[in-house]
Amino acid sequence: MDPLDVVALTRRLVDVESTTGQEAVVCAMVGEELERRGYAVTRQVVTDRRVNILATVGTPEVVFSTHMDCVPPFSPSRLEGERIHGRGSCDAKGILVSQLAASEALRAAGETRVGLLFVVGEERGSDGAMIADRLSTGVTRYLVNGEPTEGKLALGHRGVVRVKLHAKGRAAHSGYPHLGESAIEKLLDALAQVRAMDLPVDAVLGPTQVNIGAIAGGLAPNVIAPEATADLLFRIVTPHEQVMAALEPIRPLVDVEYVYHVPFLHMATLEGFESEVVGYTTDAPLLNAWGTRLMYGPGSIHVAHTDHESVAIADLHRAVDDYQRIARALLAS
After folding, report:
1. Which residues contact 98 (CB under 8 A, 6 or more apart)?
2. Model pLDDT for residues 266-325, shown as the tens digit of each residue
3. Which of 266, 24, 285 is nearest to 153 (CA)?
């Protein structure tokens, strides 16, 4: 079995642009690397050459999983001190390589019940995860999702529901406001109600959160606004229907458009690992058919999606050991 250079392979993958929707090259590279190492590789077609990669050497009871896509803009790898910099270094190409290295170490010890699932589309829409869930064989007992958790196991994470508010008014000259109806004022009144709402709380995941992410509307300072919109993202700790029901009182002011949601998720943990709730949402809630879910990864979410994204090389190597510990504990359960 060829030795795996964690730093070199991470840098090779980071040097390939794989912004969501443009993952074809990195999919091919990962699939070929796994085949070269003797894995049976299944390519789950998502769109055209965008494919999920499922790699096995036996019947997997535990699967390590993460995503191959990144947020824009692309930035290639570079080494500074003991850290790898570049887009995807911690979210999540370094994680992918740590998972592969852990699988290689387990194989070398004779363990064939660990598989690898690398998906596309996580950063925007999770189309890869939805395909992977549909194509699961149902034999896997545990899925270990890889995201930057600073070497801790996640207790769980909030889900999301995205909502768009549409306010309609009637244009008029601003010198005669009684002849018009301001959509902006309606929208502001609705948003004030949203900010004052008593939203659900979960004992582990904490409170529901809402972000008013974007507002648009109006024509000019001297025109009563005929239209206005706002984009809201709720980070949910209960079924999304509860948030939609909580928005009913604002419907006399605005139309409420449901856009999409991802469920919240409580996750399994293991003794010997620190654990905490993470504040972001992942593919894990959409991979129901892959068994009980855990989440672990090297690196910090606080540098992911930034122009200074990076990961410590020591954290990647520690993750290789930790993924093996996690797999052995789950297989023994």
Report:
1. 6, 146, 297, 298, 316, 317, 319, 320, 323
2. 999 999 999 999 999 999 999 999 999 999 999 999 999 999 999 999 999 999 999 999
3. 266
Q: How far is CA 198 from CA 20, 66, 164, 243, 301, in A?
A: 36, 35, 19, 10, 29
List 33, 61, 122, 147, catalytic entry:
122
Q: Which helix (H) or strand (E) holds 2?
A: none
DSSP strand E in the chain: where?
A: 40-47, 50-56, 62-67, 78-80, 83-85, 114-119, 142-145, 153-157, 159-168, 201-202, 206-207, 209-217, 227-236, 255-262, 265-266, 275-278, 292-295, 310-312
**DSSP-derived secondary structure letter, 250:** G
Q: How many CB atoms lie under 10 A from the CB of residue 47?
A: 14
pLDDT tens-place string over residues 138-164: 899 999 999 999 999 999 999 999 999
> Which residues does residue 19 pair with via DSSP β-bridges, in sequence order?
70
DSSP code at position 311:
E
Q: Please report the DSSP string for 170-190 in residue order.
A: B--BTT-GGGSB-HHHHHHHH
Phi–psi pair at 3, nearest 5 degrees: -65, 145
Q: What is the dihedral of CA 210, 151, 7, 28, to 10 degrees?
A: -50
122 is catalytic: yes
d(CA 286, CA 112): 26
Q: Judge contact between 171 and 180, C-beta under 8 A.
A: yes
Bond before 73 cis per omega within 30 degrees: yes
Q: pTM of whole model > 0.70?
A: yes
**How would residue 97 be classed by pLDDT, with cut points 50, 70 and 90?**
very high
User: In order of start, what are the domains of the chain with their CATH numbers?
Assistant: 6-157+265-332 (3.40.630.10), 159-262 (3.30.70.360)
DSSP assignment of 259-294: EEEE--EE----TTS-EEEESS--SGGG-GGG-EEE
Are 115 and 54 a contacting pair, CB within 8 Å?
yes
